[in-house]
Fold these 3 entries.
Entry 1:
Amino acid sequence: MAAEDRDGARERARTAAPQSRTRLDQPRSPRRNLLPEWDPEAFGRLSEKIARFLGTGRFIVWMTATIVVWVAWNIFAPERLRFDSYPFIFLTLALSLQASYAAPLILLAQNRQDDRDRVNLEQDRKQNERSIADTEYLTREIAALRLGLGEVATRDWIRSELQDLVRDLESRLPSGPERAEREGEGPRRPA
C-alpha cells in the first residue's frame, strides 16, 4: 500500500502545474518600480546649490524685495487688482511653503557636507599617522647614526691624535748638538 501511495504522489507531482523554482546561481530579474527614479547625486548637488543660494545676501535682498512689493501691491493697488488682502494669508502660505522646502534641502546639503568632512578627516588622520610613523622611523635612524658615529674616528680626533704624537716624538728627540751627532754630522767646532 505504501508503494502505491508513493507512486500516486509521484504521478500527481508530474501532472501538477510546474512550480516556479528560484535559481540561486542567477540574479533575480528587476522588479517594476512604481516610484520615479532619480540620481541621488544629481539631486544632492541641486540641493547644495539651492542651499548655497538660500544662504546668500542676494536671496535675502530678493526675498525682502518680493515681500515689500507683495505687501505694497495688496495695500495700494485698486481693490479689484488686489489678490491678498490685509492679513496676507496667501503671503504667509507662500512663505511657509518656501520654508518647508528650504529646511529639508538645507539639511540634505549639510548631511552631504558632513559626509565630505568625515572623509576628509579620515584621510587627514591617516596622513597624520603616516607622518608620525615616518618621523619616528627617521628619529630611530638618526639615533642609530649617532651611535655609529660615536665609534668612528673623526677628522678632528685624528688631527688631535697626530698632534699629540708629534709632540711626544719631539720631546723624545735630543735637542741641538746631540741631534746633530746622531744624524752623522758630528759636533761643530768653532773655527
Entry 2:
Amino acid sequence: MSRRSARRLTGAVAAVTAALALFSSAGSAGAADRASAPAASVASDASALSTSTPVVFVHGYTGSASNWTSAMSVFRLNGWSGSNLFAYEYNSYGNNITNAQGLATFVNNVKARTGASKVAIVNHSMGGLVSQYYLKVLGGNTSVSHLASIAGANHGTTFAGACLIYTTCQQMYPGSSFIAQITSGDETPGSTRYATWYSACDGIILPYTSTRLSGASNNLVACQTHIGFLTDTSVLGDIADFVAS
C-alpha cells in the first residue's frame, strides 16, 4: 500500500468515527504505521504542498453549508487546515446565473483572504450547475485548479419536474437553455482538472449518467444514494486525493 493510500485509509476511518460520534454512536479510529522517519518526513512535506489549495464546497438544491460537515472532516484528516475550507451558500429558489455570479465573488474573496492564486471546487447536485456556469460562462476556470462534482446535475435531471415553479428547477431540467449553455462545446474548459462521482443508485439525478462530463475523469460508484454521497468517506477520501494531486 502506498503512503498516500495509507494516509487516505487512516483519514477515512477517523472520519467515520467523527461522524458516528455526532450521531451519539461509539466508534474508534485506526492509524497507519510509517516505515521510517525519513519516509514520514517526505510524506509530510508532500502533504503540506499538496493540501495548501483552498477548497470551496458548493451545496445542492435546498442544501446549506451543513451538508459539508463530513467532507470537511475528511479533508482535515487528509492534511487540510480548517482555515482553507470554505462553504458557499446560495438561494436554491432564485436563479443559477445569479448563484454563479455569487460564487465568482465568493472565490475572489477566498483568494484574497488566503493569498492563493486558485481554489478547488467540490460540488453536489445542483451545485454542479452553479459551478459549471461559473467555470465556463463566467471564465472562472482560470481561478480553479480542480473541480470535483458529486452527483452533479450537470446535464439536468427529470426529478426537477417536481419543482418547476422555481427558476433554478427550470434551469435544472434536461434540455433547458441553461443546460444547453453549459454543455455546448467544451464541457471541461481551461487547465482545470475535472472529475465526477456518480451512481446508478442515486435516485435523484435522472438519468444518473447526467453527472458525467466529457473530458473529465468520471468515476462510477457501485451503489450510493444522492444524499448518501455526502457522508461517504470512501468517496470523500478519493476526492481529497484528487484535489491534492
Entry 3:
Amino acid sequence: MATFNLSKGQSFRIEKDIQLVHSGLVWESPEDGGPAFDLDVHCFALIHPGGDRSRARLYNFGSHALCYAFIRGPGNLDGSLTKRPDGSFETDDGSMWHQRDDRSGRGAVPAGADEDGGHHEEGFREEFKIVLAKLPSDVVELAVWGTIHDADRKRQDFGGVRNAYIEVCDMADVELCRYQLTREFVGKTTIHVASFLKQGDGSWEFQAVGTGTSSGLGEVIEAYLR
C-alpha cells in the first residue's frame, strides 16, 4: 500500500477493518550542530458536547490523555495513566499507550538492523498506539499535539525543526499516510498537528490540522478542561 501524503486540511480515511493504529513524530537533528530538538507528542481523547467540535473537552477529565502530565506516580497520585518499567505508559483499559520518550527523533534501532536504520529505514520517534475498537464509545476525536521540551530555555521553535512529519501505520507496520510539517511554524512551540475523527459509521479519519501556537501545553490542557 502506497503512503498518502497529506497537505494541511486534508484527511485520510482509516478503513473499519483496521482495529489498531500507531502514529508518531519523526524529525532530524539540526545541521549546524546546535542544540538537538527534543519533541514530545501527546494524544488527547475528546468528546464534543452537543456535537460541537469547537467545544471539545477531555473525555472523563483526562483518563484517556496520552500526555506526560497525566502519568500516575508519587508526585501525581491523581494521574490517570499507568507507567510501565520500560518507561512507556498506558490507559487503564489498554486502549491507548505511549511507547516512551524519545529525545532525538531517531528512535531505537531494532536488533540486527543497520545503525543508520530504524522504522522504515528512517529515524523514528515519539510513538503512540491506539486500539480503536477499545476506545470508550463517547470518544469522537483523538487530538495529536506536538511540543518542544525546554523550548524557552533553548530558544527553539518549530521553525527550526528539520524534516518533521507525523505518520500513521496499521498494526502490521504498513504506513498509511503522513503529514509533513513546514516552515510556517516559525515562532510556534506548540502545534495541534492532527486529529483522528470518528465518523458516523464507526470508522475514523485522520485529518492534518497544522495549527501552531506559542502557548504552553498546560494552557492547551486547561482549555480542554473548561
